[in-house]
Amino acid sequence: MLITGILKAKGDLVFTISPDTTVAAAADQLNERRVGALVVHGERDGVAGIFSERDVVRALVRSGAGVLDQPVSAFMTRDVIYADPKETVDSLLSRMTDRRIRHLPVCEKGKLVGILSIGDLVKAKIAETVEEAQSLKAYIAAG
User: Fold this and answer.
1) Mind listing the domains of the chain with CATH numbers?
2) What are 16-38's pLDDT values in tens digits?
């Protein structure tokens, strides 16, 4: 299964913030939108970084509550790993597991076209496995 299929089913909505958004405002958006990460947009619709729930917790532990008034640019992940729409679920699951990341922006020709969570990929993999099992059962039953 390709990532394009997941994005067609899920949609291409990506919540973004600017690098100067405060940690408090970003945390509020994470909560309000019920997502685990926000893409930090850069110049010309580029991706400057990603800011996740993990980043909030790490910032608070390192710097205390005063961090809430600081910009996300000070705490976001800058070395963003991307997905390509033509990649497979298996390749992304492997990459995300190896790198211990939960969210991947999907870019095509340098343009942000979606975002995937590890949960999106696991859900797709389970659906694919169930479909495969049902096909095998039907084949065996037809004999």
Assistant:
1) 3-142 (3.10.580.10)
2) 999 999 999 999 999 999 999 99
